[in-house]
Backbone:
C-alpha cells in the first residue's frame, strides 16, 4: 500500500491517463475517492480522459499497411547474410583459426615481423658487456680523441 | 515442450522453437502473426512508412537469425520481438525528421471530399499526427505501446530497456507536452 495524496494521484493521472483500469491496482480505490473529493483532480482526470481518447485514436489510426507478411518473410529467407549469421559457433572458431594461421605464416615467412623482444631473447648480454658496449669508443671516436 | 509444440503448432512459443532449429515454414507462419502489428507500431513510432518497413525488415531478420536467443521463461515471443523492433526504431532516430510541422497541419486540405464532421475529424487527426511528430521517438514509442498496444508499464519498460518508474516519467512528460501542443490553438480544430 502506498501513501496516497492529491500529488500522488495527480502524478498517476499524468502518467497513466484517465482510465482507472490502467492505474496501479493497489492505488485505484484511493485514487477514485480522492478524485471525488477534489475538483482540481477531477478536472485533471477529465482532461486526461480526453487526451486518452485522442491518443487511442492516433494509435489505432490506419497507416496504410498492406500486410504482405509472406513477402517480408521471403525477403528475409532469401538473404544469404541472414543464414551466415545463424547460431553456428563452428563458423566463429573456423574464422579464428584462419586468422591465426595467417598470422603464423607471416611470422615464419618474415621473421622481421616478429616482436623485437623475441629476437633479443637469442642475444642476451651481461651487464658488463652492455656497459662496455655503451662506453667503449668506436674507431672514429678513438681517432678524434 | 515437444507435446506443447504438437498441441499448439501455431502458438508463437512453439513456432519460435522451430524457427531456432531453422524451420523456414514456421518462420513464415510466425511472421504472418507479427508483421501487420509490427509495421503499424513502427510507422507510428518513426512517423515514416519507409523507415518503418526498414525497421520491421531488420527485426524480422533478427527474428530469423537470433531465434535461439529467445528464452521462454523471460516473457512472450511478442514481447521479445517488440523489444527488438523498438530498439531498431530508436536506432533510426538520428535520421528522423518532422514530417509535418504543427503550424501547417491545420492548413493541409483533406485529399477526399468528406462531410463536415469527417473533415473535422480528419483535421484533428492530422493535428495529433503533427503533435506526435514533435515528441522524440522514445516518447512516441511509450505512448504507442501503452495506449495503442495496451501494454502494461512493465511491458513498456521492457521494450524500452528501462524501468517502469522511468516510463511513468516519460509518459507524463509526453502527455504534458501533447496537451500543450494540442491546446495551443484548439479553436482552429
Residues:
Amino acid at each position: 500500500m502506498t501513501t496516497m495524496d492529491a500529488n500522488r494521484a495527480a502524478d498517476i493521472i499524468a502518467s497513466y491517463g484517465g482510465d482507472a483500469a490502467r492505474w496501479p491496482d493497489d492505488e485505484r480505490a484511493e485514487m477514485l475517492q480522492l478524485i471525488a473529493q477534489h475538483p482540481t483532480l477531477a478536472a485533471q482526470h477529465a482532461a486526461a480522459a480526453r487526451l486518452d481518447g485522442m491518443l487511442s485514436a492516433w494509435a489505432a489510426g490506419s497507416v496504410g499497411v498492406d500486410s504482405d507478411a509472406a513477402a517480408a518473410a521471403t525477403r528475409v529467407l532469401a538473404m544469404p547474410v541472414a543464414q551466415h549469421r545463424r547460431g553456428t559457433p563452428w563458423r566463429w572458431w573456423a574464422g579464428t583459426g584462419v586468422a591465426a594461421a595467417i598470422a603464423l605464416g607471416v611470422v615464419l615467412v618474415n621473421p622481421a615481423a616478429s616482436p623485437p623482444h623475441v629476437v633479443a631473447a637469442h642475444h642476451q648480454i651481461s651487464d658488463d658487456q652492455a656497459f662496455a658496449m655503451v662506453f667503449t669508443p668506436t674507431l672514429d671516436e678513438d681517432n678524434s680523441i | 515442450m515437444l507435446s506443447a509444440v504438437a498441441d499448439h503448432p501455431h502458438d508463437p512459443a512453439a513456432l519460435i522453437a522451430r524457427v531456432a532449429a531453422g524451420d523456414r515454414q514456421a518462420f513464415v507462419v510466425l511472421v504472418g502473426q507479427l508483421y501487420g502489428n509490427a509495421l503499424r507500431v513502427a510507422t507510428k513510432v518513426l512517423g515514416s512508412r519507409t523507415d518503418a518497413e526498414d525497421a520491421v525488415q531488420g527485426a524480422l531478420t533478427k527474428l530469423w537469425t537470433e531465434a535461439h536467443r529467445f528464452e521462454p521463461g523471460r516473457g512472450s515471443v511478442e514481447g521479445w520481438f517488440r523489444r527488438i523492433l523498438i530498439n531498431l526504431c530508436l536506432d533510426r532516430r538520428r535520421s528522423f525528421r518532422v514530417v509535418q510541422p504543427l503550424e501547417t497541419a491545420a492548413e493541409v486540405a483533406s485529399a477526399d471530399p468528406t462531410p463536415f464532421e469527417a473533415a473535422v475529424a480528419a483535421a484533428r487527426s492530422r493535428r495529433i499526427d503533427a503533435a506526435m511528430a514533435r515528441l522524440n521517438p522514445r516518447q512516441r514509442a511509450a505512448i504507442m505501446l501503452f495506449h495503442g498496444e495496451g501494454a502494461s508499464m512493465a511491458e513498456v519498460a521492457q521494450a524500452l530497456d528501462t524501468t517502469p518508474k522511468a516510463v511513468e516519467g516519460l509518459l507524463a512528460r509526453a502527455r504534458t507536452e501533447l496537451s500543450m501542443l494540442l491546446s495551443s490553438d484548439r479553436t482552429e480544430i
Remarks:
- Confidence is low (pLDDT under 50) at residues 114-122 of chain A.
